[in-house]
């Protein structure tokens, strides 16, 4: 079993707005962020010599990092570091690392190329004169943009209204309606769910805000959700909403009934 099968790695050509994006599913890890074929070839050569017992390349420079992750090639495997470059969070066996590099490099070199427009590939298949490619591609891009400018404003506006409505609904429900009910149990999980719901819907509302404008559509198209950005931006608001919802529960009638029930039980236990 090779590394691609071992880590269940699948290579996919994803086409978004006519543009090809090469991605991988499974356990390719940080290697997927290396899009430079020359860098991949260099890492493959370094790994091959290390496997063969020649450590000269890693003694000079063991760095096999990507633009997002820091990793070092060692005789025992590739050590992937944490963000602070203090602790090793993963070790990839050398042979597995080499096979993954080769597989990813070969996929990047297989048409359609990463970043290439599917239009160009179609023109090549139809054996159209390459001298006409630029003109035809520009015409196709203009038609794609025209379609986007026609459909995206309504779609993006509807999505914005949906998330904004959910944001307001979550605010009203978890900050006003729910605390006013006689709820004595489950305050912590309800506060967590409420905080996450408010935070997520608020983030999506901001993400889609003004996304129906022409300038936005020409530059971005449709907003793209990034999990890392979400956690970075929403962590503090989520915590604040959690404490705010919890405080509303505690100051509401349900919690007072809960405290009254506990007090009654304590008094009864003290009575003979």
From TrEMBL:
This is Uncharacterized protein. Keywords: Membrane, Transmembrane, Transmembrane helix. The lineage of its organism: Bacteria, Pseudomonadati, Bacteroidota, Flavobacteriia, Flavobacteriales. It comes from the Bacteria. The chain crosses the membrane at residues 159-181, 187-209, 230-250.
């Amino acid at each position: 079993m090779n590394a691609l099968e071992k880590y269940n790695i699948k290579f996919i050509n994803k086409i978004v707005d006519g543009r090809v994006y090469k991605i991988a599913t499974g356990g390719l890890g940080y290697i997927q962020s290396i899009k430079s074929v020359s860098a991949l070839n260099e890492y493959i050569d370094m790994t091959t010599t290390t496997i063969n017992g020649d450590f000269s390349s890693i003694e000079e420079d063991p760095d096999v990092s990507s633009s997002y992750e820091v990793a070092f090639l060692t005789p025992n495997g590739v050590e992937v570091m944490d963000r602070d470059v203090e602790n090793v969070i993963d070790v990839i066996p050398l042979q597995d690392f080499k096979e993954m590099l080769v597989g990813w490099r070969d996929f990047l070199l297989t048409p359609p190329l990463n970043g290439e427009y599917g239009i160009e590939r179609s023109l090549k298949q139809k054996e159209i004169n390459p001298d006409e490619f630029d003109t035809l591609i520009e015409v196709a891009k203009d038609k794609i943009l025209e379609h986007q400018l026609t459909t995206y404003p309504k779609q993006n506006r509807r999505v914005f209204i949906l998330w904004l409505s959910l944001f307001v609904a979550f605010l009203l429900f978890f900050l006003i309606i729910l605390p006013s009910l006689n709820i004595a149990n489950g305050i912590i999980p309800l506060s967590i769910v409420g905080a996450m719901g408010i935070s997520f819907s608020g983030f999506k509302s901001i993400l889609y805000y003004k996304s129906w404008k022409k300038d936005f559509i020409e530059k971005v198209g449709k907003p793209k959700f990034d999990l890392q950005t979400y956690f970075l931006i929403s962590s503090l608001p989520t915590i604040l909403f959690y404490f705010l919802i919890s405080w509303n529960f505690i100051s509401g009638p349900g919690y007072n009934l809960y405290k009254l029930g506990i007090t009654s039980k304590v008094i009864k236990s003290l009575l003979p």
